[in-house]
Amino acid sequence: MILLPCPWCGPRDAGEFHHVGEAIERPDPRTAEPARWRDYLYIRSNQLGWTSETWYHRAGCRKYIRVERHTETNEIRASRPSGQAEEAIR
Q1: Could you read off the pLDDT of 10-45 as tens digits, one per residue?
Q2: Most buried among 2, 3, 4, 12, by the most CB within 10 A?
Q3: Spatial separation of the C-alpha atoms in residues 33 and 87, rounded to whole Å
Q4: 3-89 maps to which CATH number?
Q5: Beta bridge partners of 5
Q6: Nearest of 30, 23, 32 to residue 64 by alpha carbon
Q7: So where are the chain's domains?
Q8: CA neighbours within 13 Å on the CB side: how many for 48?
Q9: Is the Cβ–Cβ distance between 71 and 47 less than 8 Å?
């Protein structure tokens, strides 16, 4: 069982959440080339190790959170509200 620490609801079972995917920077719609949009929408690094992901708490507060999770061990290092600065979790 994976426990995700929701900033609003506290630790909850991962079954309450929807995994949105890797947290990657969204391109600027005014300046991004089509190739950049394709990479943003379809290409994921799928790395082994620590990654930053977005999760949606569908069975709780219905808010998005950013989680740092190890992809092999499922250890959670940090979580914060999605959109909050990276420095805020350290």
Answers
A1: 999 999 999 999 998 899 999 999 999 999 999 988
A2: 4
A3: 29
A4: 3.30.2270.10
A5: 11
A6: 23
A7: 3-89
A8: 1
A9: yes
pTM: 0.81
Give the residue among 81, 68, 89 at the shortest CA–CA distance from 6.
Answer: 81
CA distance 17 to 12: 9
Burial (CB count within 10 angstroms: exposed 0-12, middle 13-18, buried 19+), residue 4: buried
Q: What angle do CA 49, 9, 6 make, to 5 degrees?
A: 15
pLDDT digits (tens, 9 = 90+) for 54-87: 999 999 999 999 999 999 999 999 999 988 655 4
